[in-house]
């Protein structure tokens, strides 16, 4: 939603330019996952809550006994003036790790107070993700 959606779109384009086949899910569902690698891009609402478009998906993952993906990475877009800064991406990664997904690299936590364009910060981070993807 909002800035996180712009970031996700920018990252998707950058990955496609590097030859990666990507699918952007604005309202993800567990049965839609077609890849063994998932990149979650999200903002945080309220007291560390997930945005509305992720709540059902996260609940599906929580209730699943299967491993939803083998690899996980994340980008959080948040405001560091809140003590729950980027909790949604951190909590999502923790959930996937509990489900046996392997974290590819530490999440990128973008602070909208410091960044003019969060999507540019995310695009500059993409080579780090590509390097890790190339090594698996």
Descriptive overview:
- The chain is α/β, with parallel strands linked by helices.
- The protein has one domain (3-19, 41-135): 3-Layer(aba) Sandwich (Rossmann fold).
- It has helices at residues 3-17, 52-63, 87-98, 118-135; strands at 37-43, 71-78, 102-103, 108-111.
- Strands 1, 2, 3 and 4 form a four-stranded parallel β-sheet that branches.
- α2 links the parallel β1 and β2.
- α1 packs across α4 (118-135).
- The radius of gyration is 14 Å and the shape is globular.
- The mean pLDDT is 94.
Summarize the structure.
The protein is of the alpha/beta class and 136 residues long.
Quick tags:
4 strands, alpha/beta, 136 residues, Rossmann fold, 4-stranded parallel sheet
Which helices and strands occur, and which strands form pairs?
Layout: H1 3-17, E1 37-43, H2 52-63, E2 71-78, H3 87-98, E3 102-103, E4 108-111, H4 118-135
Parallel strand pairs: 1-2, 2-3, 2-4
Helix pairs in contact: 1-4
In CATH, what is the homologous superfamily? Flavodoxin domain
| Helix segment tally | 4
How many domain units?
1
Based on Cα principal axes, name the global outline.
globular
Looking at the structure, the CATH topology is Rossmann fold
CATH architecture: 3-Layer(aba) Sandwich
Helix content: 40-55%
In whole angstroms, how far apart are the ends?
Answer: 30 Å
- Give the number of DSSP strands: 4
Mean pLDDT: 94
Q: Main β-sheet: number of strands, strand sense, barrel status?
A: 4 strands, parallel
Order of helices and strands: HEHEHEEH
Which CATH first-tier class would you pick?
Alpha Beta
